[in-house]
From TrEMBL:
PANTHER family assigned to the protein according to its UniProt record, in alphabetical order: BIFUNCTIONAL 3-DEHYDROQUINATE DEHYDRATASE_SHIKIMATE DEHYDROGENASE, CHLOROPLASTIC, SHIKIMATE DEHYDROGENASE
The reaction(s) this protein catalyses: shikimate + NADP(+) = 3-dehydroshikimate + NADPH + H(+)
Residue ranges occupied by any Shikimate dehydrogenase substrate binding N-terminal domain in the UniProt entry: 8-95
GO cellular component: cytosol
Domain SDH C-terminal residues, every copy: 255-284
Origin: domain of life: Bacteria
Subunit and partners: Homodimer.
UniProt binding sites for NADP(+): 84, 136-140, 232, 255
Record pathway: Metabolic intermediate biosynthesis; chorismate biosynthesis; chorismate from D-erythrose 4-phosphate and phosphoenolpyruvate: step 4/7
Keywords: Amino-acid biosynthesis, Aromatic amino acid biosynthesis, NADP, Oxidoreductase
GO molecular function, one term: shikimate 3-dehydrogenase (NADP+) activity
Name the record gives this protein: Shikimate dehydrogenase (NADP(+))
Length: 292
């Protein structure tokens, strides 16, 4: 296999851990390649750089890109082929190119989330048929909600603006008409919380550095008994939500494992080989301030 030219498309990218994750994995796999950052501002400002990257993909100069905020949804309009799962989710985090020069889009956030969720909290969660409240309505929330529904969970999704949660729900029901999905506005009061809640997921950026003091939950409302908490935010590693959950006696986990899983799944798509997660976890362990 020729050297792989890979990278991350997003803005801002700052102190990204992705190059180190992929470089370490490529080395361990005995593959030549590079992984670079491509900070492209939101459209229309980043239009020229955006077009140039897609031209490089189609020409074979680039073999794959990870995609992060703010481009997970907007890249879909440029794809030659979008995998069904990504199309249903409505967000793409992995781009590749086939032998015909067609750019394809996939979503590894969804399976990456579910794998890490059960790896970290599987001993306290039902394998299927659970009840989850997901905070957020962006691309990450879409991936989480889809993953849970496919695992036969009943899901409530809440956003600060109720219409955003409603839009997410309606979008998924276009493809999954019988999905047990309810849209809410804001953090619901105690009496409006889903009964027998198994899982609370934060899929918003609240609590992320450089604003680690923000809390996506109502501090006056304890985490319900029997509810585990998963925070997609991993910078800082101990978010305010995780600390709050543990103070309430709730099992809790951050999103570093999802970062590793989605990266490994993307690299497997580009390389056609199994990726050693342990190498990526070693990079994570050595970094005290991880970022996408």
């Amino acid at each position: 296999m020729s050297a792989l030219c890979l990278g991350l498309l997003g803005f801002p990218l700052g102190h990204s851990l992705s190059p180190r994750l992929h470089t370490a994995a490529l080395s361990a796999m005995g593959l030549e390649g590079e992984y670079r950052l491509y900070p492209v501002p939101p459209l229309p400002e980043g239009e020229t750089a955006w077009r140039a990257l897609f031209e490089r993909l189609r020409a074979g100069d680039l073999h794959g890109l990870n995609v992060t905020i703010p481009h997970k949804q907007t890249v879909m309009k440029e794809l030659d082929f979008c995998e069904d799962e990504a199309r249903i989710i409505g967000a793409v985090n992995t781009l590749g190119v086939d032998d015909s020069g067609r750019v394809w889009g996939a979503n590894t956030d969804s399976p990456g989330f579910l794998r890490d969720l059960y790896a970290q909290l599987g001993d306290v969660l039902p394998l299927q048929g659970g009840r989850a409240l997901v905070l957020g309505a962006g691309g990450a929330a879409r991936a989480v909600v889809y993953a849970l529904i496919r695992a036969e969970w009943e899901v409530w999704v809440s956003a600060r603006r109720g219409e955003q949660a409603q839009t997410l729900a309606e979008s998924l029901r276009t493809f999954l008409p019988y999905a047990p999905l309810t849209a809410l506005e804001g953090v619901p009061p105690r009496e409006a919380l889903p009964p027998r809640l198994n899982l609370l997921v934060n899929a918003t950026p609240l609590g992320m550095s450089p604003h680690p003091d923000t809390l996506p939950w109502n501090e006056a409302l304890p985490i319900p008994e029997g509810t585990a908490v998963y925070d997609l935010v991993y910078n800082p590693r101990e978010t305010r939500l995780l600390a709050f959950a543990r103070a309430c006696g709730a099992p809790a986990a951050g999103g570093l494992g999802m970062l590793v899983e989605q990266a490994a799944l993307a690299l497997e798509r580009w390389s056609g080989q199994m990726v050693p997660r342990s190498v990526m976890w070693q990079v994570v362990a050595e970094d005290s301030n991880p970022q996408t």
